[in-house]
Amino acid sequence: MITASRDSRGIVLEGVAVDTPLRVQPVDALALQERAARLVSRSVKRESKVAGLELSVRCVDLTTLEGADTPGKVRAMCARALRPDPDDLSLHPVAAVCVYGALVAEARDAVAGSPVKVASVAGAFPSGQSHLHERLEEIRRAVDDGAHEVDIVLNRGALLSGRLDVVHDEIAAAKQAVGHAHLKTILETGELGSYEMVRLASMIAMAAGSDVIKTSTGKLPVSATPPVALCMSEAIRDFGEQTGRVVGLKLAGGVRTAKQALGYLALVAETLGTDWLTPDRFRFGASTLLNDLVLQLRFQRTGRYPRPGDLPVD
Predict the structure, then answer these.
(1) Is 219 an active-site residue?
(2) Which long-range contacts (CB under 8 A, 24 or more apart) does 138-146 make?
(3) Contact at 8 Å (CB) between 91 and 54?
(4) Can you tell me the distance from the alpha carbon of 74 to that of 104, in angstroms, rounded to the nearest whole number?
(5) How buried is residue 104: exposed, middle or buried, by Cβ count under 10 Å (0-12/13-18/19+)?
(6) Which of 163, 178, 228, 308 lies in disulfide reach of 158, CB 3.0 to 4.6 Å?
C-alpha cells in the first residue's frame, strides 16, 4: 500500500518497491522555468558543436508511429538509422528505431547485426486505456518479436485521481513482462497539469522499476519542453541520490531542430552530469530531428547549407 504524506520539504512516498521511503521535492515553477531557459540557451563553440551534433545523432530513437506505417516504410527508416548521412559514412548510426508492435519483426530483421536497437510502443499506446492483462500481453509479444526496448504509457487517469498504487503496480507488472528488455515509461507530461505532478509521476515510475522515463507520446500539442526536461532530470538526480539507481531520460515530441537538441544536451549535462551524455542513458524520440542534425553537420563540414533536395527524405 503506497502512502503519500506532505511536509514542508515536499511529499514522502512509502510502500514503493525500493528499500527506503522516497522524498519528492517541491517545485518552484518560476525558478524551474528560468533555469531551464538559461541552460538551453547557452552558446556552443564550433568544436563542441560538432561533437554535440554527432552525439545527438547517436542518441536519436528514429520513430514512425502512424496509422499508415508499412513494412516498406519501416525498412526505409531502418536504412536511414543505419546510415544517417549517406555522404558521411563515418557518422555513427542512431540509437534505435521505434515502431508499433506489429512491425517489430520487420525492424528487427532490417537492423540485425548492427548496434541499432529496436524499440516498440506497447501497452495500449498512446492512451493506455485497456485492460491490464491485454497491455501486458502486448508488451510480451513485442519482446518475443525482437524488441530490445518497450515504451509504455503511464496511467494518467489513475495518477490524477490519486490512485498511486495502481500507477506503481501497473508499471511494476510491465517491468516484469519485459523481462530482459528495457522499459521506458511515458509520462505524457502535457496531461499532468503541473510540474509537481511531473515530479511525482517520475518518482513513482522509477520506483516501480522503469529503466527510462520519457516525456511524451508525441500525439499531443504539448510535448517535451525545457522546464519539463529539467523537472524530470532533477527527479532522476534525486532518485539516484536516494536509492543509488541510475535511470535514463528520453525527450520525445516537439524536438525538431539541432539547436533544440544541443540545448537539451547542455541541460542534461548540467543537471545529471556528463555520464548521461550517452545513448545508454539519454535519447531523443524524433521523426524529423535527424535531418536538421545532418544539415548542420554538413554545414560545419563544408561551410554551406545543403539544398533541401540534397537531404535524405524520411
Answers:
(1) no
(2) 138/101, 139/174, 139/177, 139/178, 140/177, 140/179, 141/101, 142/101, 142/104, 143/177, 143/178, 143/179, 143/180, 143/181, 145/101, 145/104, 145/105, 145/108, 145/120, 146/104, 146/105, 146/107, 146/108, 146/118
(3) yes
(4) 9
(5) buried
(6) 163
**Is residue 169 annotated as part of the catalytic site, yes or no?**
no
Q: Is the pLDDT at 100 greater than 80, yes or no?
A: yes
- Is 214 known to be catalytic? yes
How long is the chain?
314
Catalytic residue from among 61, 85, 151, 292 = 151
Residue 12 has a pLDDT of: 86
Query: Of residues 117, 175, 184, 250, which has the active-site annotation?
Result: 250
Spatial CA neighbour of 60 closest among 273, 279, 228, 254: 279
In the structure, what pLDDT confidence band is assigned to residue 4 with cuts at 50, 70 and 90? confident
227-258 confidence digits (pLDDT tens): 999 999 999 999 999 999 999 999 999 899 99
Instruction: Tell me the per-residue pLDDT of 252-308, one tens digit each, with 9 for 90 and over.
Output: 998 999 999 999 999 999 999 999 999 999 999 998 999 999 999 999 888 877 776
Per-residue confidence (pLDDT) for residue 19, from 0 to 100: 79
In a domain, 313, yes or no: no
Q: Is residue 312 assigned to a domain?
A: no
Torsion of CA 149, 153, 154, 156, to 10 degrees: 170
Q: Give 304's DSSP letter.
A: S
**Predicted local confidence at residue 43, as pLDDT:** 81
Q: What's the domain count of the chain?
A: 1
Q: Which domain holds residue 296?
A: 3-306
Q: What is the CATH number of the domain that holds 172?
A: 3.20.20.70
The label of the residue with cell 527508416 reads: 77
Instruction: Report yes or no on 148 lying in a domain.
Output: yes
Q: Does any domain span residue 311?
A: no
- The 10s digit of each residue's pLDDT in 153-203 is 999 999 999 999 999 999 999 999 999 999 999 999 999 999 999 999 999
Q: Which residue has the cell 518497491?
A: 17
